[in-house]
Amino acid sequence: MKGTVAVGGMALSQAYLVIDRKTDVSAYRVEKTDEELQRLQAASARCAKELSALIEGLRQDADPEQAEILDFQLLLLEDENYMGQIVHTIQKEQINCEYAVAHHSRLYREELSALDNPYLNERVADISDIEQRLLQALSCREKATLPTAPVIAVAQDLTPSQVVELGHGKLEGIILEKGGLSSHCVILARSMGIPCIIGAAGVLAQVEQGMPLLLDGETGEIVLSPDDETVRSYRQYEEARRQELCSLEQFRQAKTMTADGKTMKVYANITTNLEVPGVLEQGGEGVGLLRTEMLYMERDAAPDEETQFALYSAIVKGLEGRPLIIRTLDVGGDKSIPYLGISPEENPFLGYRAIRYCLDHPEIFRPQLAAILRAAAFGPVQLMLPMIAATDEVERAKEAIDGVRRELKERGSATGPVSVGVMMETPAAAVMADFFSIGTNDLTQYLFAADRNNAQVAALNSYFQPALLRVVEHICRCAHEKGVEVGICGQAGEVEQLIPLWVGMGVDELSVSIPSIPRVRRRIKGCDTAACRELVERVLQCSSDTEVRKEVERWL
Fold first, then answer.
1. What pLDDT does residue 225 have?
2. Is the dihedral of CA 289, 293, 298, 304 positive or negative?
3. Which residue, 79, 181, 376, 413, shows the most beta carbons closer than 10 Å to its own?
4. Do 386 and 429 touch, CB atoms closer than 8 A?
5. How far apart are CA 294 and CA 279, in angstroms?
6. Are 84 and 108 in contact (CB under 8 A)?
7. In the beta sheet, which residues pair with residue 171?
8. d(CA 423, CA 389)
């Protein structure tokens, strides 16, 4: 059985099935509304007690981000727009609690979903969560007994509070039939370091309570009742991982510096403000890539300026003075957003996408620019333009930025300085900017005319290809001649065998996944710059990725 990897890692444990038991929410008339309201009050008090205990536990564990999610649910129990409407319906219509709770929960979810506010949009899952808590309390159902031994949770989906409840040292992994890569459940799992597989259709029908499971968060495989050989392999993985984590601890908060004293920076790639605490915990020196498209993809209309400003400013403040590089909307290719009206294309990766779309649609581009400029008033922000192929694209974008800044000044909105850089993703991107960030994923597929999602041409999409390495070296050399910094924010930035090459080429910054930060820093610390330069010179003479790999392996 297989699913989609949402959070990497492996887990071996017994299955803990989380079954959604439905309460009858059909309507019926009640004669004594006072007694019905007492039932609601008692259920609300029980929920408040449970949530308060969870929140207190999280705060004692120094986990304020997860506590904040449950704080919202606690506030709902006193919210006039939620509980107040439930009470009003019971009194006015003489209707039962269960119906009133389900009815107004649905209306409130619809109301929040329609708002142009990402924070409130994300709270829809919390409405469902508190609804289920109230219905459970009203039906006098006892909560399912939480596991006392480590488990892998198996469910259709999990609410934030369920992840938190299960996660106090007992949750080894998560397998979901549904779920999304940017759902609250997945974000929490990532921040807690819990391997997670989503989209495992039919898993609940095949797994029994307590059944031994192996979750392979590297391949997406789910092994039911693994045999002795599989278990032995996992135990070896587990021991190796334990030793690896211990050895990495000294590199989490260390300064990034090569063996001969050359400084570099290790940044993180993120999608949401919920990931900022993880960046700080792992010792990230900033954010090298904020993927803003996720803010657009999970909505029915484009987010307005205020919505984007709220998100960007929250991240800037959370980074506490560390730099934030925000990539403007990178729509198109494999990222479809229906309401933007981009027509289907035969070659979407080579088509109307990213900066090409944004420059033609100021109604989308300018609110994002305004939000970024305003967020820069709270800390260091850099703006990165994706899919640049010509100098005039950068010039037009800078004109738009200058125009938006003038408008903000006229209306009295505070802004901050913002340097403008470009994603080096196309072979034609020979332009001047304040900084360059090499997107190795797209640059590789464009350089070799090989779709990175096509398994039949996967061999061409190799970061060890000499042609790609020559391009990267050329970018670094030309940029440094002009005093421009170069970073790598693609997946190649965290491939350990390639890091000596990036050091030797003079790459200034690597932006990687949050868990990889200490590992990348360790590799950098083991590199001598002069020796790495010699390795680069040899590698650039190679004629195939096989030769490059052998040369690097000999050096290591």
1. 93
2. positive
3. 376
4. no
5. 18
6. no
7. 151
8. 10
pLDDT at 347: 64
Type of residue numbered 129: D
Q: Which among 47, 97, 104, 184 is annotated as catalytic?
A: 184
Q: What per-residue confidence (pLDDT) applies to 6?
A: 83
> Helices 184-192 & 64-76, crossing angle to 10 degrees?
150
What is the fold, at CATH topology level, of the domain defined by 254-555? Answer: TIM Barrel (3.20.20)
pTM: 0.68
| Encoded tokens for 408 | 């903000």
Q: Which residues have C-beta within 8 Å of that of residue 89, sequence separation ≥ 6?
A: 95, 100, 103, 104
Summarised one tens digit per residue, pLDDT across range 264-309 is: 999 998 887 878 988 999 999 999 999 898 788 766 788 899 989 9
Give the tokens for residue 526. Answer: 């083991």
Q: Is 489 a catalytic residue?
A: yes
> Is 184 a known active-site residue?
yes
| CATH number 1.20.120.1730 is the correct assignment for the domain at 22-138 | no
Tallying the residues shown for the chain, one arrives at 556
d(CA 134, CA 97): 9
The pLDDT assigned to 410 comes to: 96
Q: What pLDDT, on a 0 to 100 scale, did the predictor assign at position 425? A: 75
For β-strands 212-216 and 222-224, DSSP reports them as: antiparallel
Q: At what angle do helices 124-138 and 33-60 cross, to 10 degrees?
A: 120
Low-confidence residues in the chain, pLDDT < 50: none
Cα distance between residue 165 and residue 58, in whole Å: 10
How far apart CA 161 and CA 340 sit, in angstroms, is 34
One-letter amino acid at 335 equals K
In CATH, which of 3.40.640.10, 3.20.20.70, 3.40.50.150, 3.50.30.10 is domain 151-247?
3.50.30.10
Q: Tell me, what's the pLDDT at 461?
A: 74
Q: Are strands 10-18 and 151-155 parallel, antiparallel or unpaired?
A: parallel
Q: Where are the domains of the chain?
A: 22-138, 151-247, 254-555
Task: Give the angle subtended at the CA of 284 by the CAs of 278 and 286, to the nearest 5°.
Answer: 110
CA distance 347 to 438: 22
Q: Is 5 left (phi over 0), alpha (psi -120 to 50) or beta?
A: beta
**Which residues, at least 6 apart from 332, have a Cβ–Cβ distance to it below 8 Å?**
342, 348, 349, 351, 352, 353, 354, 356, 357
Rounded to the nearest 5 degrees, what angle is found at the Cα of 164, between the Cα atoms of 216 and 145?
A: 90
- Distances 355 to 170, 287, 358, 490 between C-alpha atoms, Å: 45, 21, 5, 18
Q: How far apart are CA 521 and CA 508, in angstroms?
A: 13
Alpha carbons 445 and 327: distance in angstroms, whole number = 20
Measured over the CA atoms of residue 279, residue 284, residue 287 and residue 288, the dihedral's sign is: negative
- Burial annotation 517-534 (CB, 10 A radius, 16+ → b, else e): bbbbbbbbbebbbebbee
